Amino acid sequence: MLIETAYAQTAAAPVQGDAMMTIFPLVLMLGVFYLLVMRPQIKREKEKRQMQDDVRRGDKVITLGGIVAEIVKVEDDHYLEATIAEGVNVRIAKSAVEGVVTKGIPKATAAKPAKKANGKTPAPKAKKTAKKTTKK
């Protein structure tokens, strides 16, 4: 006969260990996962949500699609009206704003121009032009 008779062996008795020692590696892995992965991700999401809530008129933003636009009007908590080209206004969701390229003028300084002590607004300063010199 080619196949010999197999005999059943009795199973070894399970080792009675401390239950805490079997759970400890799992708890340790979950703790490391939280500290290295979840916590930084939650922080980034919170900062992005704050940035999207702080968007105001005059800001230049970049959308998730890569379009750079200037905010014309904040319609409500969810939508913005933005200019992507001269005469081209689009309505975008605040959640589609990936980042702010440049900030607009703050509300306090945009409302009132600066005044001198005599009560008149200062004249704009002329730009200085640099002279180019060529060496011979």
Which features would summarize this protein structure in a list?
about 140 residues, alpha+beta, SH3 type barrels, five-stranded antiparallel β-sheet, 5 strands, about 30% helix
Q: In angstroms, what is the radius of gyration?
A: 33 Å
Structural class, from helix and strand content?
A: alpha+beta
Poorly predicted runs are none
Please state how the strands of the largest beta sheet are arranged side by side. 4-3-2-1-5
CATH-derived topology of the domain at 22-111: SH3 type barrels
Distance between the termini: 107 Å
| DSSP, total strands | 5
CATH architecture of the domain at 22-111: Roll
Shape estimate: elongated
Share of β-strand residues? 15-25%
User: How would a textbook summarize the main sheet?
Assistant: 5 strands, antiparallel
The CATH class label of the domain at 22-111 is Mainly Beta
Number of helices: 2
Describe this protein's structure.
By secondary structure, the protein is α+β, with helices and mostly antiparallel strands. It has a domain at 22-111: SH3 type barrels (Roll). The protein is built from two helices and five strands. The chain has a five-stranded antiparallel beta sheet with strand order 4-3-2-1-5, with helices on one face. Strand 2 (68-74) and strand 3 form a beta hairpin.
In a few lines, what is going on in this structure?
The protein is built from two helices and five strands, in the order H-E-E-E-E-E-H.
